[in-house]
Amino acid sequence: MGLDAFIILFIIIFLRRDLDKSPDSQFWRKRFNYGMILTIVLGVFSQVEIGITILWDLGLIAIFGILAYIIYTIDQFSHKKYFIVCWAPTIILSFLFGQIENFFPSFAESWMEVVAAIMVFTIIWGFGLWLFGRRQRKALERERKIAEEKEKEYQVTQEIRASLELEVSDRTKDLVKQKEELQKTLEELKSTQDQLVHSEKMASLGELTAGIAHEIQNPLNFVNNFSEVSNELIEEIQEEFAKPKEERDSELIQEIFDDLAKNLSKIQSHGKRADSIVKGMLQHSRNSSEEKESTDLNLLADEYVRLSYHGLRAKDKSFNAEFELDLEEGLPELKVVPQDIGRVLLNLINNAFYAVNERRKSGKAPEDYKPLVTVATKKKSSGIEITVVDNGAGIPKENVNKIFQPFFTTKPTGSGTGLGLSMSYDIITKGHGGKLKVKSKEGEGTTFTINLNEED
Amino acid sequence: MKILIVDDEKDVELLFRQKFRREIRSGAIDLVFAFSGSEALEILANDDPPEVMYMFSDINMPGMTGLELLDRVKKDFPKIQVSMISAYGDSENYDKAKKSGAKEFFTKPIDFDSLRKEINDLIN
């Protein structure tokens, strides 16, 4: 068997080796098997020089041509193209030299060395190219594998992305649900806050009721007493007039008339006093539509100190404290919402009384301790300053910054809502553009200062 | 007879002076007024021995309360009779006043007839 037959046989073997198990491959496997047998037969025939040798050689060339055709036209084998490029020179030259040897033996004899050299060269070319191609093919294979892996990775990534997207949409749903729930809670909280603010107002009204009752009872008693005594005076006058003219005591009559006039003006002033207390109470409980009006802050301070004092007094029999009013005369009226400022004053004054009373009860106060709350008004260059001063135990340093926070309270549970000062702060700063400040020293007392400015 | 009336409401003076006009004019009683506990103690301390024989005191007053005043008067001037007048007729105040030696306990609004009777009883 010649070199060409061997080469063809190997090409077929390599092609056959790459086949897989698909039915399509079975078709090619069969044909490659026939091809191999035919190649072996033709190779042997050509070598042992049976019959017309050139026919066998042409047959081998034809098989090579068919292989080249298959490799170049069918995609499945296209990666073996380099086989053809490698071995075509060897096959063709070996065929040509074979024929020259047959037909011109003498010529071949004299060119033997050159022919051998060319053949060796083609074989080296073939092997070289074959090795190179193989290597290149392996590199390609590697790259293909890398590409495949990348493709796989890409697919995995796609899958992860898809599942992530699903998860994200799930999470988004959850978040939307949570957001809605939070919004609902927020709305509930807001309405609860409104209710709390309202109940704080009502609570402070409750604190007022006892004070108000006492405050109204006093003027009403005077109205009743003065009317009654006036009736007695009139009876007395009638008695005098029943006497003969000479016996009448004109001095007494004059005195009684003077008293009657005094009594009537007292009745009026106490009636007005009761009236203004009732009006104040109504204003205090009113919820909204609060309008600013010119207000005498001295009157307001006086009224609320008394309300607070009598309120606490009525509620707690053991309560006792002194209060002082230091109200600057001729204080200009200021445009404020009187019931709001009243609420603030009531709050601060109640707190002050609470503080001094607590200190008195605590047993920690000095023996000559006199609980005292002072409410003062003062005209300032650009408005009015109201101070509520107590000589209670003072506010501990760590609490001073918290007292305006909503719900902060040091009173026992149920005694304070913790909203009083935070509401007061809002009323003064937001409602009136003023300032509410606190100064406190432990063991000495606390001063709250309200600054209200004349608004333009 | 000198009677001291203690109340932080100043109009009480006018009212009492009119209510007891006849008694005052006849010289049976002499009314003195104080508008706080400390003022009452000052008045009592002015005369030695005190001319005041009877004191009526309100309980609810800023500063010294009527009950505190009662204790002080009973301690310093044990001969002076004291009766309390309060807007709050609760038993707590009543018991405390009685325990401290108050003669009577009147509630506001004052029933002047019973007050007059009390004073007349004392004069006779």
Please specify the SSE layout and strand pairing.
The complex is a heterodimer of chains A (456) and B (124).
Chain A: H1 3-17, H2 23-48, H3 53-73, H4 81-103, H5 105-110, H6 112-242, H7 250-285, E1 293-295, H8 297-315, E2 322-327, E3 334-336, H9 338-362, E4 372-380, E5 383-390, H10 397-400, H11 420-432, E6 435-441, E7 445-453
Parallel strand pairs in A: 2-4
Antiparallel strand pairs in A: 1-3, 4-5, 5-7, 6-7
Chain B: E1 2-6, H1 11-19, H2 21-25, E2 30-34, H3 37-46, E3 52-58, H4 66-76, E4 81-86, H5 91-99, E5 105-107, H6 112-123
Helix pairs in contact in B: 3-4
Index terms:
heterodimer, A: 456 residues, alpha+beta, Heat Shock Protein 90, 2 domains, 5-stranded mixed sheet, two-stranded antiparallel sheet, 11 helices, 7 strands, 70% helix, rod-shaped, B: 124 residues, alpha/beta, 5-stranded parallel sheet, 5 strands, 21% strand, globular
